[in-house]
Amino acid sequence: MKAVFPINYNLEFEPDFKKFTFIGKEKISIMISKPTNKIVLHAAELEIKQCKIFWNGIEIKPKIRLDEKTEELTLAFSRRISGKAVLSIDFIGQLNDKLVGFYRSKYKYKGKERHLATTQFEAADARRAFPCWDEPEAKATFDVSLLVDRHHTAISNMPIISKKIEDQKILYKFDTTPVMSTYLLYLAVGEFESISTKSGKTLIRVITTHGKKQQGKLSLEFTKQFLSYFEKYFKIAYPLPKLDMIAIPDFASGAMENWGAITFRETILLYDPKTSSTETKQHIAEVIAHEIAHQWFGNLVTMKWWNDLWLNESFATFMATKAVDALYPEWDFWDQFLISEMTGGLSLDSLKSSHPIDVPVKSPADVRQIFDEISYNKGGCVLMMLENFIGDDNFRKGLYGYLKKHEYANATTEDLWNSLGSISKQPVRQMMNTWVRQVGYPVIEAKTKDSKLRLSQSRFLLENNGKAKQGNWIIPLSVRTGDKVTTKLMKRPITIPYKEDWFKVNDGQKGFYRVKYDKDSLYALAKQVEEKTISNVDRWSIHHDLFALCISNQISFREYLDGVRHYEDEDDYVVLSDIISSLNFFYILLSKEEFWDEIKKFNLDFFNKVFAKLGWDPANEEKSTSALLRAQVISSLGRLEDQDIVTEARSRFANLSKTGKLNPDLRGPIYSVIAWTGDSSTYQKMLGLYRKAQTQEEMVRLLSSLANFQDRKLLSKTLSFTLTKEVRTQNLFQPIARMVTNPQGKELVLPWIKQNWKGIVSRFGVGNPLLNRIIGSVSIESDFAKEKEIKNFFAKHHVPGTEMKLAQTLERIRINARLVQSIRKEFS
Ligand code: BES
Ligand code: ZN
Question: What are phi and psi of 197, to 5 degrees?
Fold first, then answer.
C-alpha cells in the first residue's frame, strides 16, 4: 500500500470551445497512511491555479512544483499530516489535437465545421486532464460534473443524475462510479445523437455526431448480444446501469474500453449496408466483443501494473474470438484467429528484438510500446493453448474464481495461474511461466528413424547467428496420426513409437510453436494436404511453418515453392489467404530482381486457379469468408495486371459512376485495380471520390488506393497529400501502409519519412502509437545499406517510445537482405 492514496475524486470540468481550453476543479479525498509533509501526484500540461488541503478541520496551502519531465506534481507542506484529508486543486488545461488526454475532434455537419471534446486516458494520459494518481493500482470512485454550453450534451462513465441550468450553461452531474483506475475515466462534450435499447436492466446506446445514428444499428445489436454472452460466460453481471458505444471522428487507436462509455473510430462502430464490406462487419463485431470483454477483464479486475498488460489485452483478444464464434459460428472465427492473431504473434516473436509477455516497464513511453503483437496476439494464442490443455470448463471456472476474488481490485499473472491451477489440478504455473516470462517460442524438430519419431525443441529465430538467448518451453504437445491424437507435456527431447504413414505435430495449431519435419515426413504430409485428409487448420499450419523456414534460411526458396504446389486444389479461406500473403511478400521483396517475372508468373498461375473457383459475384449461400478471399485475390491479380481482372474492374467502376452501385466487398479491390492501371486523370477522379465520400470507411479505401498508382509523380503527390489537412491524423498511416506494398512506391517512403520526420512527430505528438507504425512500415526494405541509413537517421532524430519498434524494424530489414541474397544465388 502506498503512503498516500486516493479514495474519491470529485471533478468538475468546464470546456471552452472558443479557446479550446478547459477549467477544472477537483476535490480528492485521500488517505495518508504514514505521516508525511510531501504528496506527489501526476499532472502534465496543466496550469495549476490553486491548491490547498483540508485536514483535521484546518486548511493548509502547500508549496507546489510541476515537473513536466517526470509529469509529477509535488505538494510540500510546512508540517507533517496523516490520516484522512481532502485535496482541492483548480487548474486549466488545453483541449489539444493530439488525440490523448482531453482532446478535441473536428467534423462537418450541414456544411459547417464543428467540434466535440472527448478523452483518451489509457495508458497514462488522465494526468493531462486532472492531477491524479495515474496508475492502475490507485483505484478510487469518481463523481464527475460537466458545465457545458446550452447546445451541448455531456457523457461520462455513469448516468446523469442531475441537469441544472446555470446562466448560459448547463451543469450535468453524473452518478458515482464504482472503484476504478484513472485510465478508464471518460468525459465527452458536444452535439450528439443516439439510438438505444435495453439488455436486462442495462441501457445500451450507440452515440454518434449528428446525422449518423442510423449507421449504429448493427453495433447496437452486436452490443446487446455480446454483453449478454459475457454475462453468461463469466456468470457475473455487468455492474453499471448503462453502456454507451460512442463513435468519435478523430481517434488514435481502434477503440477504448472506458467503463460504461466505450469509444471507437467511426470505421469500427458505424455500418452502412450499401457501402460497408463483410470485413468491416466482422471487424465491428470483433472489436465490440473485445471492448465489452474488457468490462470484466481490465475494468472489474485490473492488472496491478503495466508489466501485466497482457492480462487486459490478451484476454480481450481471446474472449472476443470466443464470443463472436459462439454467436456467428458461420464466420469461422477460430480459423480466422490464425490470420488475425497467430500470424502476427509468431512473426514478431521470431525476432531477437521481441520481448517476453511479462515485461518490465517504467515510463509511460515504455508502456505505450508494449501494446503490440506480443501483448495482444501471442498472449491470445497462449490462452488458447492453455484452454485447450486444461479444458473449456476448467478454464471458465478458473476465470470465474479469479474475477470474483479480485473484483474491484487488482491482480497479477500469478493470481491467475493460482486460480486456473487449483481448479484444473494441472501444473499451470510451471508450464505457463515458460511462455509468459520467456521471450520467443520453440520450433519442434521432427525426425523419423526405425519406426520411431524423435522430437526435440529449440528457439525459433528468423535471424539466428547464435547470439540470441535460447530457451526451453514446457510444450503441450499433440501429434496426430489419422484419427488418433497423442498428447504429452514435452520439456525435453522425446521419442514416440511410430508405424503409420504420416503424422502431424501441433494438431489444430493449438500450440504457439512451429514444426520442422524431415524430408520424408514432409513428403508424406504433402500428400495429405493434396487429398485434404487433414483439416484446413493443419494445412494452414504446414504452409505457415514452411514459409517461416524459408524466411529463416532453413529451406530454400525453391523448396518453399515446391511446397506451395501441393496446394493447387486448395479451397479453404485461411489456407489460401496465408499462401496469397506469402506470395505477395515475395512479389514485393523481389521486385527489383532480374527474375521478378518468374515470380509474377508463379503468382499469376496460383491466384488465377483460386479466382476461377470464386468468380466476381457471390454464389448463393456462399461462406462469408469467400467474400474476404475474393477481395484479396482480385487485388493481388490486379497488381499482376491480369487482363480479365482489369477489364472487368474497369467496367464495374464505370458502372459505379453511372448508378452509384458497387458491391461493398469489391469496392476496395476495384479501387486498387483502377489505381494500379490508371493515369493522372484517374488520379483526379479518385481524389474527387475521396473528397465526396460519405463514410470514413469509404474515405480510407480511396485514400489507400491513392498509394496504389504506378506513376511515381502521382505517388509523390499522395505522400504530400497525406500531410495536408484533408487527411485526418488518425488515417495518415493508411496510404503509407499501402505504399510499401507497391513496387513503384516502396522506395519513396523512407526518403519521405526522413524529409518530413519533424512534421510527422509534431502532428502525432511524442509517444503516439501511430508513430511506431510509420517506423515499422520501412521494414519492407531489404538491403544492408538501408538498414544502416535508418539506424543512423533515428539515432540522430530519436523519439522516446520508439526504441523497440526501431530495433524490430532493423532486424526485419537484415532478415530480408539476407533472404534476397540467398534467393539471388538460387536463381543465378
Ligand atoms: N485498450 C485498448 C485501447 C488502447 C490501445 C489504449 C493502445 C491505449 C493504447 C483497446 O481495448 C484495444 O485493444 N483496442 C484495439 C482494438 C482491438 C480490437 C484490437 C485497437 O485500438 O487497436
Ligand atoms: Zn483491448
Answer: -155, 180
Gap between the Cα atoms of 778 and 801, Å rounded: 17
The C-alpha angle with vertex 71 and arms to 67 and 72, in degrees rounded to 5, equals 70
CA distance 520 to 453: 12
Task: Fill in the DSSP letter of residue 253.
Answer: S
* pLDDT score at 641: 96
User: So what's the pLDDT on residue 464?
Assistant: 83
Residue 559 is among the residues annotated as catalytic for this protein = no
**Half-sphere exposure of 142 toward its Cβ, with a 13 Å CA cutoff?**
27
152 annotated as belonging to a binding site for a ligand: no
- Known binding residue 530? Answer is no
Distance 287 CA to ligand 2 centre (A): 8
| Tally of domains within the chain | 4
- CATH number at 728 reads 1.25.50.20
Residue nearest to atom 20 of ligand 1 (CA): 254
Q: What is the pLDDT of residue 665?
A: 98
Ligand 1, atom 21, residue with closest C-alpha: 254
pLDDT, one tens digit per residue, over 442-490 is 999 999 998 899 999 999 999 988 788 899 999 999 999 989 999 999 9
Ligand with an atom nearest the CA of residue 184: 1
pLDDT at position 1, please? 61
Q: Which atom of ligand 1 is nearest to 265's Cα?
A: 21
Nearest to 742 by CA among 629, 635, 599, 632: 635
Among 63, 47, 67, 55, residue whose Cα is nearest residue 130: 47
Q: Is 8 helix (H, G, I), strand (E, B) or coil?
A: strand
**What distance in Å separates the CA atoms of residue 582 and residue 543, rounded to the nearest whole number?**
10
**Is 313 one of the annotated binding-site residues?**
yes
Of 291, 373, 570, 787, which residue is the catalytic one? Answer: 291
Report how far residue 344's alpha carbon sits from residue 346's, in angstroms, rounded to the nearest whole number: 6
Q: Are residues 55 and 120 in the same domain?
A: yes
Q: Do the domain assignments include residue 655?
A: no
Based on the domain organization, do 415 and 499 belong to the same domain?
A: no
> Which residue puts its alpha carbon closest to atom 8 of ligand 1?
122
Task: Give residues (CB < 6 A) around ligand 1.
Answer: 122-123, 253-257, 287, 290-291, 294, 313, 316, 371, 769
Phi/psi-derived region of residue 440, left when phi > 0, alpha when psi is between -120 and 50, beta in every other case? left
Enumerate residue ranges in the chain where pLDDT < 70: 1
Ligand 2 geometric centre to CA of 263 (Å): 12
